[in-house]
Amino acid sequence: MSQADETIDSRPVGPDKHVVAFLDIGTNSVRMLLARIDPNHSFSVISQQKEVVRLGEGEFRDRQLQPAAIRRAVLVCSQFVQMAKAHEATEIIAVATSASREATNQGVFLRRLNREAQLDCRIISGKEEARLIYLGVVSGLNLGEKRALFIDIGGGSTEVIVGTQSQHDFLDSLKLGAIRLTSRFFQPGDVGEVSPRLYQQIKQYVRTTAVRTLQQLKQWRTDIAVGSSGSICNLAEITIRLIYKRPWKKDDSIMLADLKEVAVKLCECTLEERAKLPGINPERADIIVAGAAILETILEDLGVNELRVSERGLREGLPIDYMSRMEHLPPLELRSFRERSVFQLGRSCNFDETHAKNVVRLSHQLFDSAFQLGLHKLGEWERELLEYASLLHDIGSFLSYNNHREHSYYFIRNADLLGFDNTELAIVATTALFHGKALPQLKHPEFAELDKRSRKIVRTLCVFLRMAEALDRSHVGAVSQVRLYRSAIDTICLEMTSANECQLELWGVKRYEFAFEQVFQQKLIVESKVVSLV
Fold this sequence. Notes:
Blueprint: E1 6-7, E2 18-25, E3 29-37, E4 43-52, H1 67-86, E5 89-96, H2 98-102, H3 106-116, E6 121-123, H4 126-138, E7 148-153, E8 158-163, E9 168-174, H5 178-185, H6 196-209, H7 211-217, E10 224-228, H8 230-242, E11 253-255, H9 256-268, H10 271-274, H11 288-302, E12 306-309, H12 314-324, H13 331-334, H14 336-348, H15 353-372, H16 380-392, H17 404-414, H18 422-433, H19 445-448, H20 452-471, E13 479-488, E14 491-498, H21 503-510, H22 513-520, E15 523-526
Parallel strand pairs: 2-5, 5-6, 7-10, 10-12, 14-15
Antiparallel strand pairs: 1-4, 2-3, 3-4, 7-8, 8-9, 11-12, 13-14
């Protein structure tokens, strides 16, 4: 590997600390952050690494990751994984962005990462990428009461965010990136001098592609603009050295007028001349013009004259997000993005929130008591996904009660829920889809497309969900508590606690005795006696 950013902290890991590696597999580069996670929910950086792999090279013409690009990315990831293990990392968390999520052969890439690099990687949506970028950038700022516009130009996409120090107000991802636009407007290996006419054509394409997002952004009052990503940082460094005649400083700002002057200079150069300009990263010489066109157009159209530059981004957002999910934090803080996003979807579909919360309560009681009996070995992660499936299982009724399970599945899969990766969304959506009628089988395409582990999780969770749904069949919270207990070696009893008669719930849950037996290989008896509350 040719480029190691820095190694910062080499102290030994104590018994109450652990090391986690975070990998950002982007369209242009693979970045890794090795961090020591402290029990007080802070972290210290052990090492930061970056390698240019051009995973998206040649991909945006036919939506196929090229074999050579896959080989480069897998090799770098393998070396990063080895480095993480050498530092005794207990977890390696990897996400892939634009090039991977758009590629029709993404499965080939993920399987090779798993087989050759021993790396499980999740592909995230554009909006989830924007959220993680926001977390990374804002964690290095002190905005006070200001609201900021955040711009991050990657190889395949550009993320734009509006937010304060504590929360984002707007997230979007545009199919505009330095590699994507270079592939569109230039022939491979022919990114030399760029005529003023061609540069304006690139800018017009950016403007046309981003028009709806730019209109939405104009509705927000912002006090400061912050740019991040390799392209923006490199444009800033070139501007500072060419125009301001000084070295780069952390959190520098550049003016739009100066960026325009630099863009003209970049266009006038041949590729060889451009690679020798002060401040430029030679590895970006071929894609920097496209990056300049994206940034210049966005700043122009939004009337932004000054841009502050941050070296933080998605890579730094990953540990922030990781710590927000750590145990011992208050529940709201623990899952603020995920929970907020789920409730926003449910409320936009006018869901019965009281009923949904009752189903969550009952499904968790079933999940927990089944765990205590040894019926499953699922943990907190699966329990959390059950919660979200329980909250959203009926949202499809907003469209039509007929086929509402299928509608719920579609809404969950396509609503851009924040804080979730594709696997989590698939598990939540498929669990909601099968909360009634037949158990999921391989003949069902939604179930068949899941990996083996996810299929096992869904089969377990959907039994708890359908039973919990039946236990609140009347939508009045008649059943206050439910538990499973063993009455014989191969027999499980379900005990319902209620202040009043709940015959509808009793009849409803009895319908799922056979499904329970199929999944858990234990006979289920639903007690006809209802224990009244004292």
